[in-house]
Amino acid sequence: MELYNYLRILAVSTAMLATAASAEWKPSSAWTTKTVPVEVFAQFPMIADPTITPDGKWIATKVRANGQQVLAILAVGQANVAPQIIARDADFSTDKQGEQQIIGYRWVDSDHLLIEIDSRDNFAGEWFDNIRYAAYNRATRKVVPLGWDKAFTGTEALWNSRSGPPHILLQRRNLDYGTELADKPEVIDVDLDTGKYRAVMRPNAEVESWVADEDGVVRMGSKRDGETGRVEVYYRPDRDSPIKSIYSGVPDRETGLALPEVFLSGSSKAYTTNRTDGFTAVYEYDLSTMKLGKRVYGVTGYDIDGLSLTPDRTRIEAVEVTRARAEQHFLDPRMKEIQGLLEESYGKGNVHIATADAARETIVFRVAAPGQAESWYVFDTVKGGIARIAYANDTLQDAPLNPVSVIRYPTSDGKEIEAVLTMPRHRTSEKNLPLVILPHGGPWGVRDSADWDAYGWAQALAEQGYVVIQPNYRGSGGYGIGWAKAANRNWGYRMQDDLNDAIPYLAGKGIVDAKRVCMMGWSYGGYAASRAAERDGDKYRCAISGAGVHDLPAMIRYDKNYLGRYGAKTGLGSASADLVDASPGLHPEKYSTPILIIQGARDKRVPPAQSRDLVARLRKVGKVEGKDFVYIEQPLNTHNLLREADRIQVLTETIKFLKEHNPA
Fold first, then answer.
1. Residue 323's pLDDT band (cuts 50, 70, 90)
2. How many other β-carbons are positioned within 10 Å of the β-carbon of residue 59?
3. 3-state DSSP helix/strand/coil percent for the chain, to nearest 5?
4. How many CB atoms lie within 10 A of CB 129?
5. How far apart are CA 566 and CA 573, in angstroms?
6. Which helix (H) or strand (E) segment is 195 a member of?
7. What is the pTM of this model?
8. Calpha distance 81→59 (Å, rounded)
């Protein structure tokens, strides 16, 4: 389907409000007995990450088109209004800035969309995420770069206006201030229509990052020494006061500092999230003493993911946490009531409110049970109508697929791992099945949940007859300080054992055959798969390593901030012997099970040299290509799989490899 025609259909569907109210939700039965083709799971979602204007009339969202994602604007409740196509990721690319990706966007008002763009760039031999911003005017369709002209090594939006002429506060590093202040940011106030700006905070030799309150006043600055972990913090109570030091020291790497994160509008009240009790919770923050106040919200055994404010930025509206699935806990009575009404129709836990207008009258939400692709709806709370905007996957629609659950299993050292288990639905028996262990990337701050897998890998493998387990091994995000610290010095060791320990547990339950196991992963998961083939080949029939790090010392030479200078010491140990021993690619003779190696030629985060060097070493020690290893280099792929063609190839080659070495 042509992009324009597809977007036109989406726009028409949003004009059907109040005509398609859902009294009873009945998922599709289209795929009850049929096997879903692998290519379907590799598709981008039809829409992703929608955000609605304050007046509730327009939705900005990424949409699937021609094998990639495109940022577009759709009309809500307005017939015969053509959609606006803003840009593809590649449209922001220039020779100077390199390959770029749209990673975020939000409405400043009902006409102006603030777009966040990221590229992986290099300056003076150091790799960094180069964040830039652009404004899109819905009325004029004009795109305006914001503060790009004198910025280098990235920018950060600190605040945006809510009324009047649209503008933002942006911090950036500006070489005009001289080399001594080259790594110290200024703060500029930028007009979204013209791109013109004025400085509101000059660089300070003691500050590497600034924080603004919800009224647009720069209140706090800090810097961190990458070698020692020492942090300096400076603060002022208002616009007219001088910046003063309030902290100097080395905070715990996982706990962090207790500092204000959200300064409420028109108030002296502030909030923060902190792990002072072992798990991240929301606290009031006393600005008079600069200390934690009353605990506002927390969940036993899990970290809070974050909080959101009401449109006027005077109160906390919701707190989010991920347990088995992502959850929203609304503190605002009206939004809590709306959530309850929707869950009455679609099931508790199946509704996620993504965005709403300023009046909280037009609600955009998604619906999905575990093992089911998402469906997107608009709820008109005034007229009481619900209309479906789109299925995330037009082929799957809302059909229930392979069952997903969350389990816990014991480790060999007495801990317990929470993991996502996907069972193959086409099996006549749930006994002695083949297993694929699918560790997530990261590893720090990342975790898997029972929500729909955006890459479709777990469902695609289960559809082929494999049991799939996604362990949240130690170091995974969301489980508190203790679990984060447990990863220290454990890359390739105890973290690897956590993955291995899933095998005897599932085999003991009679679910899997312990002799029919493979591991697949991407990024850190690719490292884990490579380590499995090198260290624990007796436990696995094969391994699939995508964008994996195989040589840790080389990775740190390529990107010295990969672990951070301080992180390298606390995370893996500063002794080079530790890094060498934990690097599977430096021990090619130990690879004892077949491995499929997949690498993007345009990957700037994990360079192709990581995989190419591994392949060369495997050949050098006599490993046979096609038997002991298979190497696939995707010429147009980056680290983030931004093309459907690359996603399809990863899945098809993976399943081909599994069928050869661990047939279902």
1. very high
2. 27
3. 20, 35, 45
4. 12
5. 10
6. none
7. 0.93
8. 13
Any residues with CB less than 8 A from the CB of 309 and at least 6 apart, and which?
A: 214, 262, 264, 315, 316, 317
pLDDT value for 266: 86
| Nearest of 369, 329, 366 to residue 347 by alpha carbon | 369
The radius of gyration of the chain from alpha carbons, rounded to an integer in Å, stands at 25
With beta carbons less than 8 A apart as the criterion, state whether 41 and 463 touch: yes
Average pLDDT, the chain: 90
Residue 590, CA distances (Å) to 109, 328, 439, 587 in order:
59, 47, 21, 6
Element (H, E) at 126: strand 126-137
Q: How far is CA 12 from CA 15, 17, 50, 248, in A?
A: 5, 10, 16, 57
Give backbone dihedrals phi and psi of 438, rounded to 5 degrees, phi first: -125, 80
Would strands 326-330 and 262-263 be described as parallel, antiparallel, or unpaired? unpaired
Helix (H) / strand (E) containing 651: helix 644-661
Q: What is the pLDDT of residues 468-499, one digit of tens each?
A: 999 999 999 999 999 988 888 888 999 999 99
CB 372 within 8 A of CB 401: yes
Name residue 104's beta-bridge partners: 116
Element (H, E) at 244: strand 244-249
Region class of 203: left (phi > 0), else alpha (psi between -120 and 50), else beta: beta
pLDDT in tens, 333-356: 999 999 999 999 999 999 999 999
Distance CA 459, CA 438 (A): 11
Residues 18, 36: Cα–Cα separation, whole Å: 33
What are the C-alpha distances in Å from 88 to residues 108, 121, 149, 577? 21, 19, 22, 45
Go through 426-465 and write b for each residue having 16 or more CB atoms within 10 A of its CB, e for each that does not. Answer: eeeeeeebbbbbbbbbbbeebbbbbbbbeebbbbbbbbbb
pLDDT at 95: 43
Q: Are strands 126-137 and 142-146 parallel, antiparallel or unpaired?
A: antiparallel
Residue type, 184: K
379 and 342 Cβ atoms separated by less than 8 Å = yes
How far from chain centre, in Å, is Cα 167? 27
Check pLDDT > 90 for residue 570: no
pLDDT reading at 154 higher than 90: no
pLDDT in tens, 106-132: 999 999 999 999 988 888 778 888 999
Structural tokens at position 242:
């001088």
Per-residue pLDDT, averaged over 535-561, amounts to 94
The whole-number pLDDT of residue 569 equals 54
Give the percent of the chain with pLDDT over 70: 92
Select from 558, 648, 654 the least CA-distant residue to 606: 558
E runs forming strands in 303-446: 304-309, 316-322, 326-330, 351-356, 362-367, 375-380, 385-391, 404-410, 416-422, 433-437
pLDDT at 12 over 50: no
Q: Is the pLDDT of residue 14 over 80?
A: no
Average pLDDT rounded to a whole number, residues 241-261: 87
